[in-house]
Specification:
The complex is a heterodimer of chains A (126) and B (1021). Helices cover 44% and strands 18% of the residues of chain A. Chain A is α/β, with parallel strands linked by helices and 126 residues long. Chain A has one domain: Rossmann fold. Chain B has 27 helices and 35 strands. The termini of chain B are far apart. Classes of the chains: A alpha/beta (126), B alpha+beta (1021). At the A-B interface, helix 1 of A face helix 22 and helix 23 of B.
């Protein structure tokens, strides 16, 4: 069973995505504090991370960079889920190694599709 | 016996029989041999092994036959293999045989042609040629015939047939052998040669030049038509006889050898131009000769072409001569123009003429002042002794005298043969060719030129023409010199006067330009006028609106400024000057009755008066006048000078008036100008800076004080940016001078070196008459506008976040509920979230609307009695849980009576909430937030101090700007509206807000809210 790590400071977003993914048979762990997000990822070793950008303390972008620069974690695909809707912002996100960039508000259905798609893609990779 | 006889006879018979058998066998053999021979078999087997005299004879015969036959066979083979066609004819020209080459040439086989006549191979024409040839040469001779034979197929093949007779031993011709040579090539070659020959003839004949071909004996071998036309039948005659009328080879003329002779001598082409005199006319002939060489390279013949180039040569000579003439005339006139010494001019003219004509000498005889005597003052080519003898002539005497008298040119090719010169002194000097012509001044003859040669000299009409024109040029020059001498004197006087005037004018102008006081200026001008014209009285009168003349200035006269001196309609000289716009000069006041003089002026008993209009723009509204008590003749230059003074005065006055306006305006407007944030630069119509305020200085990076009086274009640097800006200013100025307003956006490099975007406006400043007197440039720093734009887009980013997050709950959760993916219990949680987030959205919206309402002045205070301590406590309580969660310590202290404060409680709460929210958001756990409230005289002082992150310096200046979230926007949530709203609320309460923040230390915000009395004020005032 694939494990997904959700990082967002909004509890209701976490709840909603967790519900959606669990119904699809995925294992989900959630993380509200961005400061400890990387540590959590190291501990949980998820198959995929869904990451918010605008969070207090450490921004999602910084978390993403930290993940990608950690040799043990850099392989984990990341879906950036954010309210940042400007084109240049999206480009910035993508340039940090994000697999998918998804803009809020979003459809949980489509998010699930993305998750499955990315998981499938990465399953084939060693 | 019989028996014996029988035996003998038998034996004999037998023997005979035997012998006969042998014989018959031999005969048989021979017969066989002959048969073989007939077949051409000459082998030894022909006779076999037979012996005997007959066989031997036969053998010998066979052998000899074989030899002959072999020889014939060889010959036949040789014939067969010959590359040239060969045919054998019998006596009657019937074809007996021919070789394969013949077949190859004409296509016939032996079966076709043997037995036919050779004439069968020819057409009638060729047949005739052939038979004629044969008749002429006889049969026994070697002949050759050039004929065309008809080949198989009908084509005529030109051939050369060489025929040789075949004779028998007795010498009788029995046959002929013909060798054919194919001749097509030769025929066509000959044809083209012939054509070439014909063409050459045509070419030669078409030449307009004489063309001869000569042999080494100078005999004419060939001559073209032109040559024949010139010399008749030429062939065989010698060229020198025909063309040069000589009896031997020409030695050449003019030292040039005959080119034909050269060709025969050198073998190379040669050419020369020969000059002949034909019936008294010169004739130039260009002779070109070319060698014709034989195979050994020997010159057998020469081609000689003679071209008459007289016309061209004459033309060239003419041009050369004209050039020379022109050069002479040019050098004379240059001398005339450059020199102011009469002698120089004459001498150089004489030299040039001598050179031009190739004469040997000349002399100049100027006429004395009285016009009676000519005396030589310059001569060349004659010894002084000779000149002494003819140094002077009276007018009418000798040649120069006569020329001076009648003004006509005299030329003589040879004085010794000229009856006109019979008694001339010139003859005694050896002079023969002589020309004498007058030097003509504007009105009279001023001298005589003479030119001599000691040999005969034929003067051409051209030369005479040149002489006359030189005489005229030099004469006029001489006149001019005299005039110049006079003018020089006049000019020097004039110059001196001019200098004086200039000095005065300059003085006046510089004095006036330093003065700004109109009255002082007028006084100065009038004093200058009085001084310069030595006038006793001068004044400046101005026409008022009623058409009366009033005194503006009359220093020393006692006439007060503003005094009415002439009423409308009085015909004073000043009024006349103003009316007619012309100077009015009265040279004798006493006898002039047309003009009216004021009593004060009339009292002076002036003799001379002059008034001049002073313009203001196109209108003359005032006059400057002076009066003299002595008679004085006013010349044009005096009046002109007076006018110039008036002009200077006019300009100075206008300038002063303009300054007046500005000085008054400046006093009033300086403060205003300086307080304006926009940069204001005022320039006059010439672009000189009249004023620049501080803001302009700061914006444009210029010093407002030192900028005064300078051209605005000098104020800016020469970077591309500055030049662009300066250019833009001048463009705007152009437009504004037309009376229009113009606005442009531009960029300017300020003092700090920073590029500042500005809005540039140009306005016309008009004087009283409505014309543009100055241009005002207004420079507005619009960097804030631009910043505002960037803030706005920043807002859009953060606003989008603020909207999108709640919307995520609303959209996503609704979708899941609708898809029945949520359990009953969870559904409620979802709906609650949707509700909460929906509310949050609406809060943001109302916050924006609040702000907009306050800003646009729609929002008013809802004042009421408020207890401040409860208000503060209420807000604090709201934040306590959040602060607790974050580990931020909250504290509050109050001083004074907090109750009964008149304010809009809701708005104050809003304000406090926003401030609290900010402090909490931008603080780390462990920070403190302190609120102190104090009731002070006339109001409330509220201080909120936190030990949070502090505000970065860059963000400080943007504080309170709507939607600006600064550096922390990345990691915090917020609307970017909080502080903006705080500011607006404070403003609405007519309060004040102060922010003191240090990054890393914390922020202190101090707010003063004045207490609203019962006299509620309209917030809008």
């Amino acid at each position: 069973m694939s494990k997904i790590l959700l990082i967002d400071d909004e509890p209701f977003i976490l709840m909603m995505i967790e519900d959606k993914l669990k119904r699809a048979g995925l294992a989900v762990v959630t993380q509200r504090e961005s400061v400890t997000a990387v540590e959590r990822a190291r501990r949980e070793r998820p198959d995929l991370i869904i990451l918010d950008w605008m969070m207090p303390e450490v921004s999602g972008l910084e978390v993403c960079k930290a993940l990608k620069s950690d040799p043990e974690l850099s392989h984990i695909p990341i879906i950036m889920l954010t309210a940042k809707s400007q084109e240049d912002e999206e480009k910035l996100g993508i340039s940090c190694g994000v697999e998918r960039y998804m803009i809020k508000p979003f459809s949980p259905k489509i998010l699930l599709e993305y998750v499955l798609e990315v998981l499938e893609k990465y399953k084939r990779k060693p | 016996m019989i028996a014996l006889g029988l035996v003998v006879s038998l034996l004999a018979s037998i023997a005979c029989l035997f012998a006969f058998r042998r014989l018959s066998r031999s005969v048989q053999e021979i017969r066989n041999g002959i048969e073989r021979l007939k077949r051409g078999d000459f082998g030894p087997q022909a006779i076999g092994a037979q012996s005997g005299p007959l066989a031997d004879e036969f053998r010998q015969l066979t052998e000899s036959l074989r030899e002959r036959f072999t020889a014939l066979d060889w010959k036949a083979r040789y014939l067969e293999s010959m590359p040239d066609p060969v045919l054998v004819l019998d006596y009657d020209n019937l074809i007996m045989d021919f070789n394969p080459a013949f077949t190859a040439l004409l296509g016939y086989s032996k079966e076709d042609m043997v037995g036919y006549s050779i004439f069968d191979l020819m057409d009638e024409e060729n047949g005739k040629v052939m038979s004629r040839n044969l008749l002429a040469n006889g049969h026994g001779k070697l002949t050759s015939h050039e004929v065309s034979l008809i080949a198989r197929g009908g084509k005529a093949v030109p051939v050369l047939i060489s025929c040789a007779p075949v004779t028998d031993r007795e010498g009788e011709v029995v046959a002929k052998v013909g060798v054919l040579k194919e001749f097509s090539k030769e025929v066509s070659l000959r044809k083209s040669l012939r054509e070439l020959g014909e063409n050459r003839r045509v070419i030669m004949d078409s030449m307009p030049d004489i063309l001869l071909v000569l042999n080494r004996e100078y005999e004419i071998v060939l001559a073209n038509r032109t040559a024949c036309e010139t010399g008749g039948e030429l062939a065989g005659k010698r060229c020198y006889e025909v063309f040069h009328d000589r009896e031997s080879v020409c030695p050449g003329t003019d030292g040039q050898d005959c080119p034909v002779q050269e060709v025969f001598r050198q073998g190379k082409p040669s050419g020369a131009v020969h000059l002949y005199h034909e019936q008294g006319r010169r004739k130039y002939v260009q002779i070109s000769a070319y060698p014709i060489k034989d195979e050994d390279g020997l010159v057998r013949n020469a081609v000689c072409i003679m071209r008459d180039i007289t016309a061209g040569k004459t033309y060239e000579d003419e041009i050369a001569r004209r050039n020379k003439e022109l050069a002479t005339l040019l050098s004379i006139s240059r001398k005339v123009n450059n020199s102011l010494k009469g002698e120089d001019i004459f001498n150089s003219a004489l030299e040039s003429l001598i050179e031009l004509t190739g004469m040997q000498g000349g002399a100049i005889f100027p006429l004395d002042e009285l016009g009676r005597e000519l005396a030589c003052n310059y001569h060349r080519g004659l010894s002084d002794d000779y000149i002494k003898g003819m140094a002077k002539f009276r007018v009418g005497e000798d040649i120069p005298g006569r020329v001076a008298q009648n003004g006509e040119i005299f030329t003589s090719a040879d004085l010794t043969e000229d009856s006109r010169a019979r008694r001339s002194l010139f003859i005694h000097t050896g002079i023969r060719g002589c020309a004498s012509f007058p030097i003509k001044g504007k009105e009279k003859t001023i001298g005589v030129f003479c030119l001599f040669s000691f040999g005969r000299h034929e003067f051409t009409p051209d030369e005479e023409r040149i002489f006359m024109s030189v005489g005229e040029i030099t004469g006029i020059a001489f006149d001019n010199i005299k005039l110049y001498e006079k003018m020089k004197l006049l000019y020097q006087q004039h110059k001196w006067r001019k200098t004086e005037e200039q000095k005065k004018l300059l003085e006046l102008a510089s004095v006036l330009s330093t003065k700004l006081d109109v009255r002082e200026m007028l006084d100065t001008a009038i004093l200058t006028v009085k001084q310069f014209f030595r006038a006793d009285f001068a004044c400046f009168l101005e026409m008022d609106n009623g058409g009366n003349l009033v005194v503006r200035s009359a220093p020393g006269s006692g006439l007060p400024e503003g005094a009415l001196i002439y009423e409308k309609g009085d015909n004073s000289i000043e009024a006349a000057a103003i009316r007619t716009k012309r100077p009015v000069i009265v040279e004798d006041i006493q006898s002039q009755y047309g003009y009216a003089f004021a009593r004060d002026i009339a009292r002076g008993q002036y003799k001379v008066a002059c008034a001049i209009p002073v313009y203001s723009g196109n209108r003359a509204l005032s006059a400057l006048s002076f009066y003299c008590s002595y008679f004085k003749r006013l010349r044009d230059e005096d009046i002109f000078f007076f006018q110039t003074m008036a002009n200077i005065l006019d300009v100075a006055l206008e300038r002063a008036q303009l300054y007046d306006k500005f000085i008054i305006g400046k006093g009033m407007s300086e403060t205003i100008l300086e307080s304006i944030e926009d940069g204001i630069i005022t320039v006059d119509t010439q672009g000189r800076v009249l004023a620049a305020n501080r803001a302009a200085g700061a914006l444009a990076g210029i010093d407002p004080v030192s900028a005064l009086g300078r051209y605005f274009s000098e104020l800016f640097g020469d970077s591309e940016e500055d030049l662009k800006f300066s250019y833009l200013l001048s463009k705007i100025m152009e437009e504004v001078l037309q009376g229009n307003h113009m606005e442009r956006e531009a960029a300017i490099t300020g003092r700090s070196g920073r590029k500042v975007p500005i809005l540039l406006n140009g306005y016309p400043a008009r004087d009283q008459k409505g014309s543009v007197a100055a241009v005002i440039f207004a420079l507005r720093d619009i960097s804030r506008h631009e910043e505002a734009d960037s803030i706005k887009s920043e807002f859009l980013r953060s606003a989008s976040h603020e909207f999108r997050t709640p919307l995520s709950a609303i959209v996503g959760m609704t979708e899941m509920i609708l898809d029945r993916e949520v359990s009953r219990e969870k559904e409620r949680v979802y709906l609650e979230t949707i509700y909460t987030e929906g509310k949050r959205l609406s809060e943001i919206v109302s916050c924006l609307l609040d702000l907009d309402a306050i800003e646009s002045g729609k929002e008013v205070l809802r004042l009421g009695e408020t207890s401040l301590d409860s208000l503060i406590s209420e807000v604090l309580a709201e934040f306590a849980p959040a602060a607790g969660r974050k580990g931020v310590d909250l504290s509050v202290s109050m001083e004074g009576d907090m109750r009964g404060f008149k304010a809009d409680a809701e708005k104050l709460k809003q304000m406090l909430r926003n401030l609290m929210q900010n402090s909490l958001t931008y603080s780390d756990p462990g920070s403190r937030i302190e609120i102190t409230g104090e009731r002070v005289e006339g109001g409330l002082e509220l201080v909120l101090r936190d030990t949070g992150w502090g505000i970065p310096e860059d963000d400080l200046k943007h504080l309170g700007q709507k939607f600006y979230r600064g550096r922390y926007a990345q990691k915090t949530k917020g609307k970017g509206l909080g502080l903006a709203l705080v500011k607006e609320i404070v403003k609405l309460h007519r309060g004040a807000i102060g922010i003191d923040s240090h990054e890393g230390k914390g922020t202190t915000i101090k707010i003063e809210i004045p207490e609203k009395g019962t006299d509620e004020q309209d917030p809008s005032d």
